[in-house]
Amino acid sequence: MMKQSRIDTFFKVQRVSRNIKTKETDVYVTYNNKTNIQEELYSSSISDDSIVRMNRDRSPELYAIRKRRQSLSSSESKPSKKSSTWILRTPTKLSPRKLENLVKISSTSPSKSPKYKQSLSPRKLFSERIDMDLVQQAVENFNLAKQGAIKSNNFNLEEIYLKGLDKEFKMEYGTLNLNAAVMYDVTDLKYPSEKHAAHVFAIITEVFSRGVNCGYFNEEELDITFSILTLSHKAQMLLARMLKRKRTWYRISDIKYNEIDMDLIPVFQELIKHNMGTSDIQSQDNEILLKLLKVKEVDSICKKSKVPHGQRKEISIQNLLQQVQGSRIYFFGAKSPKNALRNMICRELGPCFHISEKVASTFDRIATLFFPSQDPQKDLGDMFLTLTQVHEGKILYPTPTREMKFFPIFGNREHLISYVESKANYHDLLKAIENKKWDIVRDLGRLSYNRLISLPEKQEDLESSIPLHVKKFAPEYFWVKTISKSVDAFKKSKNIEDVITYLNVLINQKHVQLSNKASLYQELCLLEKHYKKDLESSATFVMDALVQNNITELDTTNWLKRAETLLRRQTGISKETKANLKAAVERVKNVLPSNPNVTKIIGSTLMKGNISGSKSTWIMNLADESSLYMSVEGVAMQHYFSEGFSKGSHCEGSLPVLLFAVLCWEELYEYSAPCAFLSSYQEAPLDLYTKHFYDIRSSLFEKKFKSIRGQDFMSFVETLVVKYIKYCDYESIMNKNLFKSGEEFKEVVICLGLDGILGICEKLAKDYNTWKSGFPDLIVWNYEKRQCKIVEVKGPGDDLSSKQKLWLWYLESLGIPTELCIVRDTSNDGKRRQ
């Protein structure tokens, strides 16, 4: 049975033993009578009778630390056994002033205690859902790090994973230094009641409730993190919003958050007082400050400086900068032109704010530990949105039914810092590609190339104990992806030598096992052929690629197509090379799929003015002389409706993924593969996109497929429909909107048949990363006749890819009717082109 994931343990609605409403924060605080080993470490403020005895054999070093602490504090006064005051289990002794804020509770047994509600309304404030056990654990871990019991991490990941993933990772504690000058106090915390501030609080407390995460931060960074939790409510709200913004300078007058305060200057002053940011603009370059001004303000400074004004803002800024650059000081004591300009700018700007780089960097690493596998296209704002939607019950994520064992994925602090930096660069690259800023793309590509080649040379680690999906948390993984993504931008600049250099580096590097190495070889082969006119080298590339280990069916097909093109050449290739290439082709020739057996050609009118590279729009004339505008797939769908198919769906890759997710949900989401789920907000296990996904679960898949083949087909269909309806509630790899209802899904399953369903799912189970795409465009069906057809649709000038051919070939082998539908333009212009 699946369990719902809420904002883990911080916002979790759980069965509680006591609900205590504090006077100071007016929140319901959850206490749990169970204590773990670290909670036993500090007990100086608790009576001897209330301390849970520690198993000495289980953790002798922690037992010794606790005994030492207890002996040193034995002279301190302790509350009586029948005291009516509940003292929080904190690492420090509470002052009498703070004790007054704690609530007095009767010492009666739980059975005689007044009844409390066992669950909280989803509409309750965030502060009313705080789990104090989690908060206290985080504060205790802060103090353990402060006192040296939690040391800086320096893990050898190879050794940890070599011991076996069936064994639990055990954290080693250092010697406790009881002379630490300053300690963290849980009563200093301010519990937020607003969602953005609550997200920051939740992320921090969840991350640091796991003691090992403290070892990724130095003492200064831990101080900063704890300071965030002690800010006033307004300051926490403002900081949360500034963390989501771009890390640059802002004019305070331009920032409006009326839900915090109409006047934000005192709140910004509190952030600056706690070193969360700075307002010192005097040390900044004039160019940076001028960009913060509005056009009228820049014109005003131009007038005062006797510089031409009334032009575009960028031109006026350059004029001002050029004027002060060429000016001189002619007498002693006069202000320099640069300083005079800066003073004018500062008067126009008013108070400004820039979040501290150290604060931003620290929180970025905390957020990474909270959600290591977040899509690099998304940012902190997207993470906050996800947490809000989960908290409000708008989205659900699947969670493994068994608790996952913890293993570190970062070796040390430097490893984490480098990973966050490389992922941030990849995020910037994707944004630049989206906005077609090719100069930025090339700059990021060069930066990544320089970082990659600066790494020590690495031998091929085929026997590495670290799982492939864990290796993706190495910084070089995103350096490699950035270089690979930037290759197209370098081709646009016609700098082919750089492209060839980068491709060779990607192919020969040993740091990351690339799943697209074959496509890189093909890219290099094309460059050798078209730009360097070296057909001999191209042929050599093809022969080398065809004998590569672990070459996929798709890669082989692509290389065979390349080989056949080269063999047709009359010149440029020696007879010996041609003979060797022909022999290589003969060895794997049977892999090459044939063209579809059934091809249908239909006609329609292509709308004029279609933009090159975009989806084409077609016009369909109806009987009542009206017209419909639709895509090429829509034209094909209408044709098949006229042939007797009653329903259809433009599915592409969504259909096989949906069938696979529903049928194999248990293997995907309920099987506890090591390190497959590092967060409660994942749509899929991390190893799904690696070659080891099937290997780890092969026995489970084989058992399931064998069991299904022995079932009654209609019983299997009913089971599948129930699962589909149930799992549509979750965020997962499947498209929940592909079918209108469970009944429509049932019709498709029956029309595809048992062999069709199992064949498609087996394909994805064995190599999901390759076969999640390339599936034909349409499925049309007639439930009354129990008939269906899967159709690939092509418009003018559109050819079948190798993957599309392989899918059509494979579906045909399963006995599923397939067809290639070619839509031709029947207008006069279209006829002339054809």
UniProtKB/TrEMBL annotation:
Record domain VRR-NUC: where: 725-825
GO biological process, one term: interstrand cross-link repair
InterPro entries on file: Fan1-like, FAN1-like_euk, FAN1-like_WH, tRNA_endonuc-like_dom_sf, VRR_NUC
Location of the region described as Disordered in the Swiss-Prot/TrEMBL record: 67-87
Entry's Gene Ontology cellular component terms: nucleus
Pfam family of the protein (one): VRR_NUC
Alphabetical keyword list: DNA damage, DNA repair, Hydrolase, Magnesium, Manganese, Metal-binding, Nuclease, Nucleus
Catalytic activity as recorded in UniProt: Hydrolytically removes 5'-nucleotides successively from the 3'-hydroxy termini of 3'-hydroxy-terminated oligonucleotides
Domain of life: Eukaryota
Subcellular location: Nucleus
Primary location group: nucleus
TM annotation in the entry: none
Presence of the UniProt keyword Nuclease in the record: yes
EC number assigned by the record: 3.1.4.1
One Gene Ontology MF term: 5'-3' exonuclease activity
Obligatory cofactor(s): Mg(2+); Mn(2+)
Claim: DNA repair is one of the keywords in the record: yes
Stored CDD domains: FAN1-like
Similarity section: Belongs to the FAN1 family.
Function: Nuclease required for the repair of DNA interstrand cross-links (ICL). Acts as a 5'-3' exonuclease that anchors at a cut end of DNA and cleaves DNA successively at every third nucleotide, allowing to excise an ICL from one strand through flanking incisions.
Protein name, UniProt field: Fanconi-associated nuclease
Origin species: Cephus cinctus
Gene designation per UniProt: LOC107264506
